[in-house]
């Protein structure tokens, strides 16, 4: 079968390779991939900024159909519509594994990074990571369960009360999903972008996010202060991984506000205004990936039409069309791109 494989570190080195069809293990589920989403981390990996074990088939956002189960698997059967967490292996012994915080296990191996992922026809998932799709969640929406779970996890990192003013910096897929989850808590949500983000800001309006602001054309701080009697935003989610956005977010927050870092920066060390953190007593928290307890609530949000994930899908390509998919993302034409396998 064909797979889109990152063969070596560095820029590029992503090729269509003929690989063997995987054989299911005792406690594993074999999944026929229907759709696999391109994540920002896949872009970073392609560009050489994000390290993975090579060679490896990329793709950790996917949906599919169960075609075979291991002899110790009774929870699933062929024909089940499913998605899967990215966790493929953990130590099971550290304090983080004991509390279900698998995203923090130092020995964790993930699909699409250390274990072959979804940019192919078939993949293997451990049975504990597989989730059956609800009736009203189709395969395209289900391929976005993983990023939605990341956003659900990010919103849970903050304490949001009904009526709070929440600013989401960055209208990419993660920002648009975070904005929807935050709005579902009862917050008043502002999402921001730049001139080249107009397609995404228009999508935010279509999704009925309260305010979609082009910060190159509108005064964001004036809007925030007007909505908060001059105090500032209660919560900021930084979803861009851009230094100017982090600086903006700290400036927009009220005293004792909450700053949640979601986006990944191209370099680990960035200038950060700790003076504002100190003087305004801002709480700063990171949000890494997702946890098992984020998945069922995320599926429920889609099933109950409280989050519209499929609405973010703008482009579909097969795995042999990586170059076209990559360019659509880099040009700002695409919001979310899904890949399909080839036989």
UniProtKB/TrEMBL annotation:
What CDD domains is this protein classified in? Zn_ADH4
InterPro entries attached here?
ADH-like_C, ADH-like_N, ADH_Zn_CS, ER, GroES-like_sf, NAD(P)-bd_dom_sf, Zn_alcohol_dh
- One Pfam family name is ADH_N
Kindly state which keywords UniProt assigns to this record, in alphabetical order.
Metal-binding, Oxidoreductase, Zinc
Gene3D superfamilies given in the database record: Medium-chain alcohol dehydrogenases, catalytic domain, NAD(P)-binding Rossmann-like Domain
Asked if the record carries the keyword Metal-binding, the reply is yes
Q: Which cofactor does it need?
A: Zn(2+)
Q: Does the keyword rRNA processing apply?
A: no
**SUPFAM superfamilies reported for this sequence:** GroES-like, NAD(P)-binding Rossmann-fold domains
**Ranges for domain Enoyl reductase (ER):** 10-339
| Family according to the record | Belongs to the zinc-containing alcohol dehydrogenase family.
* Annotated protein name in UniProt: Zinc-binding dehydrogenase
**Source species taxonomy:** Bacteria, Bacillati, Bacillota, Bacilli, Bacillales
């Amino acid at each position: 079968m064909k797979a889109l494989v990152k063969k070596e570190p560095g820029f590029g080195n992503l090729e269509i390779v003929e690989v063997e069809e995987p054989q299911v293990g005792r406690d594993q589920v074999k999944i026929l991939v229907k759709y696999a989403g391109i994540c920002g981390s896949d872009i970073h990996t392609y560009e050489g900024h994000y390290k993975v074990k090579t060679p490896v088939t990329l793709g950790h956002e996917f949906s599919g159909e169960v075609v075979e189960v291991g002899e110790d698997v009774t929870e699933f059967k062929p024909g089940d519509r499913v998605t899967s967490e990215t966790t493929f292996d953990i130590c099971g012994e550290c304090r983080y594994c004991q509390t279900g915080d698998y995203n923090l296990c130092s020995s964790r191996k993930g699909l699409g990074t250390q274990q072959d992922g979804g940019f192919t026809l078939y993949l293997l998932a451990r049975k504990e990571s597989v989730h059956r799709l609800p009736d009203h969640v189709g395969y395209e929406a289900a391929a976005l369960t993983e990023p939605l779970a990341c956003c659900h996890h990010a919103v849970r990192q903050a304490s949001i009360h009904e009526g709070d003013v929440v600013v989401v910096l960055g209208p990419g897929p993660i920002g648009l999903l975070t904005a929807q989850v935050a709005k579902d808590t009862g917050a008043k949500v502002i999402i921001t972008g730049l001139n080249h983000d107009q397609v995404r800001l228009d999508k935010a309006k279509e999704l009925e996010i309260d305010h979609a602001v082009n910060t190159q054309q509108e005064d964001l701080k004036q809007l925030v202060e007007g909505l908060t009697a001059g105090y500032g935003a209660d919560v900021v989610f930084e979803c861009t991984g851009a230094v100017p956005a982090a600086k903006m977010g700290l400036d927009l927050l009220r005293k004792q506000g909450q700053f949640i870092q979601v986006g990944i920066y191209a370099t680990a060390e960035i200038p950060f205004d700790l003076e504002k953190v100190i003087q305004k007593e801002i709480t700063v928290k990171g949000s890494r990936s997702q946890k098992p307890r984020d998945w069922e609530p995320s599926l429920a949000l889609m099933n109950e039409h409280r989050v519209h994930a499929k609405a973010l899908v703008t482009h579909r390509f097969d795995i042999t069309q990586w170059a076209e998919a990559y360019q659509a993302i880099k040009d700002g034409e695409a919001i979310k791109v899904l890949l399909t396998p080839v036989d």
